[in-house]
Design goal:
alpha+beta; 3-stranded antiparallel sheet
Length: 359
């Protein structure tokens, strides 16, 4: 039966129930919702002081809540500030109360929380490079300009020294490298630096530089020293006789290639004394003519000697370098003894040297 049928509605025309929202009702207050949420959190940890209802027999005032909350927060902050994850390429240097404690290895590690402890990270696998140049005075009183580069990295066993023992690592390496280069150049001739064995000079500078940095406790490992260019100073370049800088053989002189032959033995340069074998390098027509002459008055070297000579000429030069370094040390000791004598004049030899009794 309809709701508005006459006689069936005692209230005088009752309308059907309306479940739709009342358009005149105000939306909920957002600020009030936030306040209620904050008050709920406060009451949860005992900060709320306006609890109107309490369980029967409850005498607690909620004063333990803030202390527990404060302790939990402090513990979380301490744990967060004491955990460190060190990458594979890094090392972590730990200072406790400002004093070096230990070095962290790759992986997850824990220390004292901040500010008691502090961790400094440093990449120990990165290769760093310093490029430099300078004018050097050689042993034979020639002024040359050397361009060189130094490659180094942080010593993973002495990262703390790298971080705290030197104020400017890049500047320290650059200045120490220049000092080492001057020292080595001052004990070498210009021809030795330019034409003979630049590799020997590189090794000598690297060794001297590493000694200097170790004395400074710099925490640096020198990986390589490389001389890139040697040339006369720019202000005298036009007047400089540059033949030694660009000519390594008479064959490089114009019109001399087809008229030059190099004949040498293996005894001195490769310590093959007793093998009785040498070699010749030159134009094919000249080598062929000399071979015909040589075959008439000397016997051919054995196949073993020939193969050994070929291996010495085409293989690694490291044995020869080590032998030359030993000869240089002996020569330097002899020169040092001669310099200590009065009224003695001598010239530092670059090749073989002999000490003879004047009597």
């Amino acid at each position: 039966m309809p709701w508005n049928e006459p006689g069936k509605n005692d209230s005088g025309g009752q309308e059907p129930p309306n479940n739709r929202p009342n358009n005149q009702q105000k939306p909920p207050d957002f600020e009030q919702i936030i306040k209620d949420a904050i008050n709920s959190i406060k009451n949860m940890f005992g900060f709320g002081g306006n609890n109107k209802t309490k369980p029967a027999g409850s005498t607690g005032s909620g004063q333990g809540g803030p202390l527990v909350f404060f302790v939990v927060i402090l513990a979380g902050l301490a744990l967060w500030s004491s955990a460190y994850r060190i990458d594979e390429s890094e090392r972590g240097v730990v200072l406790v109360f400002g004093k070096y404690s230990h070095t962290l290895r790759p992986g997850l590690s824990f220390t004292w929380p901040q500010p008691i402890a502090k961790v400094y990270r440093e990449n120990v696998q990165k290769i760093r490079q310093e490029d430099n140049s300078g004018q050097m005075l050689t042993e034979d009183k020639n002024l040359i300009e050397i361009d060189y580069s130094v490659q180094y990295r942080v010593d993973e066993e002495r990262v703390n020294n790298f971080l705290f023992n030197i104020a400017d690592p890049e500047k320290t390496v650059s200045q120490a490298a220049e000092s080492a280069m001057r020292q080595v150049a001052g004990t070498s001739t210009m021809d030795h630096i330019i034409n003979e064995s630049r590799t020997d000079v590189n090794f000598a500078v690297q060794s001297e530089l590493q000694k200097m940095l170790d004395n400074y406790k710099a925490g640096v490992e020198v990986r390589q020293v490389n001389i890139t260019e040697v040339h006369p100073p720019s202000n005298v370049k036009d007047a400089f006789d540059g033949s030694l800088l660009i000519i390594k053989s008479f064959a490089n002189i114009p019109d001399m290639f087809d008229r030059t032959a190099v004949i040498n033995g293996m005894s001195k340069g490769f310590a093959m004394t007793g093998w009785r074998i040498g070699y010749m390098a030159g134009p094919e027509w000249l080598v062929a003519a000399c071979e015909k002459m040589q075959s008439q008055f000397t016997s051919a070297a054995s196949s073993i000697s020939q193969r050994a000579t070929l291996a010495a000429l085409t293989g690694s030069r490291q044995p020869s370098i080590e032998m030359c370094e030993a000869f240089h040390r002996r020569r330097d000791e002899l020169m040092k003894a001669l310099k200590a004598l009065k009224n003695i004049k001598f010239t530092c030899p670059e090749g073989a040297f002999y000490l003879l009794d004047a009597k």
